[in-house]
């Protein structure tokens, strides 16, 4: 066997091991990615805590992991608790809407230009028995005939996500504890594959992109949820805290916040509080405009040196392709792509100048 053949066999053997490992752990890849993103975003905090504890990595990893769990799980727990209080009534509403149809509200006629069309669409879809199942095109919805079935399916999904969250925080602890060794090993492999200079150039971009995306999406989205939650409280939206939590989660996704405050405004209008509904819509539009046109582009684009269009394409393309995790992976990929673009341009310009230098 020649050296080239041996290299091909060795590469194939290594690739087979990697693929088989991914196959075995595919169920846990998503929690691992969430843990990795959170670890990269909060790594400077862990380093400061470890230094304050005089290098005790295990204790520092445990404390920062607990702190992150409190920060993320506490709002989630409050939202789930609030949702649980409303769950029986909401489940009964969903079951009745699916089996009997949901009556179209008369105020739809008062919507300018499209009110009659929306009213007729509602009658033809949601107003018909099993119209909700046909609208969502999901066989499981059609089987939700009673409130208990709705609660059972929702509860199963919540427990599944809870297991993923707990596993992600377990992984986060080990990422903190062994992060330095993992980074050294990753740097060695990357430098071996694409060269030290290129690996250093690209690897430095990833933490910056992740932290900027987390700050620009998560923190700004939660701030939107807080501001609109205050508005919900003053406007008299039922379960304002639950609506605020839902708004904060949806606000992380571009153009997701209007779904939340639009639904809250529709609920107020359904109850006859038209002025309060209009106020919520106006407040939501103002907050969304400031956040999406000024705050987020400044936080993400300035840190990653990406144009706003590249940031937007990375976020929306990531969500469309990978789901919620794509919110953070998309901007990272676009950052690496733009870095590659600049590197290729610089290399081309250097080659152009070579004859002149000679």
Structural summary, described in words:
- Keywords: Membrane, Transmembrane, Transmembrane helix.
- Belongs to the autoinducer-2 exporter (AI-2E) (TC 2.A.86) family.
- It is found in: Membrane.
- The chain crosses the membrane at residues 7-23, 29-46, 58-78, 158-176, 208-234, 240-261, 268-291, 311-341.
- This is AI-2E family transporter.
- With 358 residues, the protein is mainly alpha-helical.
- It has two domains: 27-178, no CATH class; 195-347.
- 84% of the residues lie in helices and 0% in strands.
- It contains 14 helices and no strands.
- α11 (257-270) runs antiparallel to α12 (274-304).
- Residues 139-145 have low confidence and may be disordered.
